[in-house]
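User: Show me a protein chain along with its predicted structure.
Assistant: Here is one chain, sequence first, then structure tokens.
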Amino acid sequence: MRFEELVKKISPKLKAIAHKLNGRFAYLGEEDLCQEALAHLWLDFQQGKLDDKTESYILQGCYFHLKNYLRKAGDKASLFSFEFMLNEEGEALDLQNILPLESAEPDYHSRFLIEQIRNDGLTKREKEVFEFSLEGLTTREIGLRLGISHVRVVKLKKKVKEKCKKYLDDPALI
């Protein structure tokens, strides 16, 4: 089978896999994940690793490759989205990876927002995770510093985001 035929055959399911994995990481989209999977498949195809494999086996391999890729890329990434606010020097403000702010508002607003969040309703552990996130530490680095698992850090970040969301949804609180 030619590579183009294989891609045409598995593309819908590959896009579904990318969609399933997409919600976990803000710095990679579905299209990025599909491209990574196709690059991986192309290398395997060139080496003859896909000659006697079933479609299901190939898709499962893509799924595991993407999960591993995201795990490795997530640990090393210090990326930010253009949706985040930038200061006058073009650097991302401290809210990266915590608050998905929609518009570029003045720097004083973001500092005030951070102070509001720090002083309102976060537990001690959530505040620690919030502060380390503002410093730009990865999830695993935060876990090591606090002596907790990275899974626990992810859960704490989720709680912080939920609590921060009220400030973004209701401008009267700011």
